[in-house]
Design brief:
Elements (H helix, E strand, L loop, with lengths): L1 H11 L1 H22 L1 H7 L12 E3 L1 H11 L1 H14 L1 H6 L5 E14 L15 E19 L3 H66 L5 H36 L5 E3 L12 H11 L1 H21 L5 E11 L11 E10 L7 H68 L4 H35 L2 H8 L7
Parallel strand pairs: 1-4
Antiparallel strand pairs: 2-3, 3-5, 5-6
Helix pairs in contact: 1-2, 3-7, 4-7, 5-7, 7-8, 7-10, 7-12, 7-13, 8-12, 9-11, 10-11, 11-12
């Protein structure tokens, strides 16, 4: 009768209903904490709070820019490219005039007359200076005909292009590493979320098993198994957090920043449907490593032509103006005079140096040709292998996604059966272990798929085109 009257009052007064619900919730919470001392003392003590970061947010595009501006590997490649760009000035200098000015200031001297024997003056022989003189000459030397300057300039230009392609290859490889590490960090964050979810599920199962043990509905073996699974989930979560710290340090070293930063989830690096033949053609045309070998072969061939041109005669014009301060050294001559004329240089025999240089550069050209042919075959094989690997990983990700979904449903079902007393703790632990494995396999397959797509894009020159889009490199 009291209960009925209580509900009648509740119908008439909503505030009384709220008070009764609060009292019932407090009583239930107190009873649950009394029946499960392990969960109150031990399980909560092992709960890992999520780490809150307050670092700078770096997007993938910003990461690319940071790597290009701060990565020392790219800076070293830029210095190598700068050194190669100076070779063209050496070739240009072969046809530029040579102008020089020479100035000499000297004093001629003459010893004193011989002193008779037996007579020794106090000062000894006197050292006298005569004929102070200075002179200067202004000289001009201008090559008029030097065929070797043309292949030398072409060889230097191809060397510069080869170095530029090497710089592009290093930069594209660095951007690929940045993208791969960036998605690895994102995968670590997803792994932490999955392991934290598993940890909460293991914790909830441990609390439920402890409550059932206190109520006499479970045995101590069930508690030990639940506790073992709880510790395993805790260790997985700790390992995932440590892996995130390690991978963030690797990414920070590429970007030249500290580890106190956050990443934003970009678009998935999905690969558009493109035929295999088209991908091979793109790799041939845009891969910077292959193009570097092409320019290296051209450079060696032009350098061979330069050494061969040394057999061709050279003609140069030379002129000079000379002036002396004293005509004592030029009896009956002028102290100021001009000289001008043309010089023909025709090499006839220069030993073995030129022949060895020609053969050496020819061998370098052949070596670069063989390297280019083999690199072309290797590039084609890599594109084919990565193309089918991407397709296989994409199918694998779809399969593992369904497997993770089914494992999650199975764990929920087994857990409900355990609550109803139909399933055992072993079934719950096994289902949770299968769910954990499915989650890890799915994340690992996703990361492998992303890295394979990035690797395929690097092979076909996508990262080089990204450098062009970023206005860092405009050389196609």
């Amino acid at each position: 009768m009291k209960i009925k009257s209580c509900f009648k009052v509740a119908d008439s007064n909503k505030y009384s209903v709220k008070i009764i619900l609060v009292i019932l919730f407090a009583a239930f919470y107190y009873t649950a904490s009394f029946l499960s001392p392990f969960a109150a003392k031990d399980a909560d003590a092992f709960y890992l709070k999520p780490v809150v970061h307050s670092g700078r947010l770096i997007t993938l595009s910003e990461a690319y820019m940071l790597a290009v501006n701060r990565n020392d590997t790219i800076k070293a490649a830029k210095e190598s490219y700068y050194q190669s760009s100076l070779l063209k000035w050496s070739a240009v200098g072969m046809v530029l005039p040579d102008i020089s000015l020479k100035y000499t200031d000297q004093r001629m001297h003459k010893n004193s007359a011989p002193i008779p024997a037996g007579y020794t003056p106090l000062m000894g022989n006197i050292f006298l200076f005569f004929f102070p003189n200075y002179q200067y000459s202004f000289t001009l030397n201008e090559p008029l005909f030097n065929v070797g300057a043309i292949p030398a300039y072409m060889a230097a230009e191809n060397t510069e292009k080869s170095s530029k392609m090497s710089l592009n290859d290093v930069s594209a490889g660095t951007l690929y590493s940045v993208a791969a590490d960036y998605y690895t960090v994102l995968n670590d964050i997803s792994l932490i979320k999955a392991d934290r979810k598993t940890f909460k599920e293991a914790k909830a199962h441990l609390e439920l098993t402890t409550a059932k043990l206190n109520a006499g509905l479970a045995i101590i073996t069930d508690l030990l198994q639940a506790k073992s699974q709880f510790y395993a989930a805790k260790q997985e979560l700790i390992s995932a957090k440590n892996k995130l710290k390690s991978d963030k340090a690797a990414l920070a070293s590429l970007l030249g920043v500290s580890r106190n930063f956050e990443v934003a989830k970009p678009k998935q690096p999905l690969f558009k449907k493109t035929g295999l033949r088209r991908l091979i053609v793109l790799a041939y045309n845009n891969n910077p490593g292959l193009k570097s070998l092409k320019f290296a072969q051209k450079s060696a061939s032009d350098q061979t032509a330069y050494y061969e041109s040394q057999y061709i005669p050279k003609i140069s014009f030379s002129a000079s103006y000379n002036a002396l301060s004293n005509d004592h050294f030029i009896p009956q001559g002028s102290t100021n005079f001009w000289t001008a004329g043309a010089t023909l240089t025709m090499p006839i025999f220069q030993g073995a140096n030129r022949i060895i240089s020609i053969e050496k550069t020819r061998s370098e050209a052949n070596q670069a040709m063989y390297d280019k042919l083999q690199a072309k075959r290797n590039l084609k094989a890599q594109v084919i292998s990565m193309f089918y690997n991407v397709k296989s990983l994409k199918s694998q990700v779809g399969t593992l996604r369904h497997e993770e979904k089914f494992a999650s449903k199975n764990f929920t079902l087994v857990e409900e059966e355990f609550k109803a007393g139909v399933a055992t703790s072993v079934d719950v632990v096994t289902a949770l272990a299968e769910l954990t494995r499915a989650r890890h396999n799915l994340l690992s397959a996703k990361l492998d798929y992303y890295e394979s797509v990035l690797d395929l894009k690097r092979l076909i020159g996508s990262f080089k085109r990204k450098l062009i889009d970023m206005k860092i490199d405009k050389l196609n």
